[in-house]
UniProtKB/TrEMBL annotation:
This is Dipeptide/oligopeptide/nickel ABC transporter ATP-binding protein. One of its GO terms (cellular component) is plasma membrane. The keyword DNA damage does not apply. It comes from the Bacteria. Keywords: ATP-binding, Cell membrane, Membrane, Nucleotide-binding, Transport. One of its GO terms (biological process) is peptide transport. PANTHER family: DIPEPTIDE TRANSPORT ATP-BINDING PROTEIN DPPD, OLIGOPEPTIDE TRANSPORT ATP-BINDING PROTEIN APPD. Belongs to the ABC transporter superfamily. PROSITE patterns: ABC_TRANSPORTER_1, ABC_TRANSPORTER_2. Pfam families: ABC_tran (PF00005), oligo_HPY (PF08352).
Length: 378
């Protein structure tokens, strides 16, 4: 369950990839807030900037990627088990009564960053299950992380913790000495999650963690992730282009398009009343198990070239409801009018000075139907 205590404030983060034929603006002024224990789903088509934004937050980007602006404020707290002592010491926030306050991850020194990773934030990468070391048992891989990042822990305690972590992700203790090739794909993915949990981080980023698995195993792993987040009050940024994954897992959904966050809302509000025509199109492009049957239409066209994003709203060339302002004025992420608490949208359709009549979800649906009919006629 998420608290309303802020853990992370991403403010106006922009990232470019430099290339000989012009900079690719992969993330453009992204801002959002994450609370302790909250699960946010970051969704959007391939190439919309999800991974780049997540790796910018974790300071994992390497050239040609460059974070060109913004702040990522992280709010540390003193861990009761002492597991983040080294991080607080590196921040010089370990004196009795020291004001903890936020730190900007983008400004951490290399030494501070080393203590931040694993202790405070860990990442489960895309196809992480293939990233396990093939010549080392899974138990040893967990114990190695503990040895490097929690040097005060002795060998017996490390072994006990490794067994406990494996148990927690549904792997029996006798698998401690198994090599990755002796485990199924689902078990390998569970093992990578156990490694990410080793130091009780406050925040985990998972980038398409279940893509390579069959749907039954995906489902089991999503359930497990949800339980772990609750049990450890851990926040999670879960990246996917498959919105059906988010239906039962996340508290909030953030949708990206062409490097911009174009809508954020609580999960139910997003599924029931998506406001941005892109969000509607994305949600309508996958089948749902529950709810009324709908005709799936999809979104004609393709995203813009990120070296040369059009003026105005980046979606206007594909939008069935675009009007004049959308071609010239860049919308910003703000509460929609009429407001649904927690819902932010970057679309002129919800700016009363520009559009007196905001479209309903049914009108968004009808506009896509009409668009599909038009493209059939052509
Ligand atoms: N090394 C690179 N050099 C140039 N452009 C890059 C590089 N890596 C990524 N990009 C571009 O940055 C944009 C954002 O990519 P990113 O991988 O963050 O998107 P994504 O939404 O995570 O996509 P996916 O779901 O396919 O992983 C894309 O247009 C991509 O082509």
């Amino acid at each position: 369950m998420s608290s309303r205590e802020v853990l992370l404030e991403v403010k106006d983060v922009s990232v470019d990839y430099s290339a000989s034929n012009g900079a690719v603006h992969a993330v453009d002024h992204a801002s959002f807030t994450l609370h302790r224990g909250e699960i946010i789903g970051l969704a959007g088509e391939s190439g919309s900037g999800k991974s780049t934004l997540a790796y910018a937050i974790a300071r994992l980007l390497r050239p040609p990627a460059m974070t060109t602006g913004g702040e990522v404020l992280y709010y540390p707290r003193v861990q009761q088990d002492g597991s983040n002592k080294a991080f607080l010491r590196a921040l010089k926030k370990d004196k009795a009564g020291a004001e903890l306050g936020p730190v900007d991850i983008l400004e951490l020194t290399p030494a501070q960053l080393r203590t931040f990773r694993w202790n405070e934030l860990s990442i489960v990468f895309q196809s992480a299950m293939n990233a396990l070391n093939p010549v080392m048992t899974v138990g040893k891989q967990i114990m190695d992380v503990l040895e490097v990042h929690q040097p005060s822990m002795g060998p017996d305690a490390r072994k006990k913790r490794a067994i406990e972590l494996l148990r927690r992700v549904g792997i029996a203790a006798d698998r401690l000495n198994s090599y990755p090739h002796e485990l199924s794909g689902g078990m390998r993915q569970r093992a990578t999650i156990a490694i990410a949990l080793a130091l009780n981080p406050e925040l985990i980023i998972m980038d398409e963690p279940t893509t390579a698995l069959d749907v039954v195993v995906q489902r089991e792993i999503l359930d497990m992730i949800s339980e772990l987040c609750q049990e450890f009050n851990m926040a999670l940024i879960f990246i996917t282009h498959d919105l059906s994954m988010l239906l039962e897992l996340v508290d909030r959904i953030a949708i990206m398009y062409a490097g911009r966050l174009i809508e954020m809302a609580d999960r139910d509000a997003m599924f029931e009343h998506p406001r941005h025509p892109y969000s509607y199109g994305l949600l309508n492009s996958f089948p749902r198990l529950h709810g009324p049957r709908r005709r799936m239409v999809g979104i004609p066209g393709s995203p813009p070239d990120l070296r040369n994003v059009p003026a105005g709203c980046p979606f206007h060339e594909r939008c069935p409801l675009a009007f004049e302002a959308c071609h010239t004025v860049r919308p910003s992420l703000q509460p929609a009018v009429p407001e649904i608490p927690g819902q932010l949208v970057s679309c002129h359709l919800y700016t009363p000075t520009l559009t007196p009549d905001m479209p309903s979800t049914a009108e968004l649906a009808a506009s896509y139907e009409a668009l599909a009919e038009r493209s059939k006629v052509r």
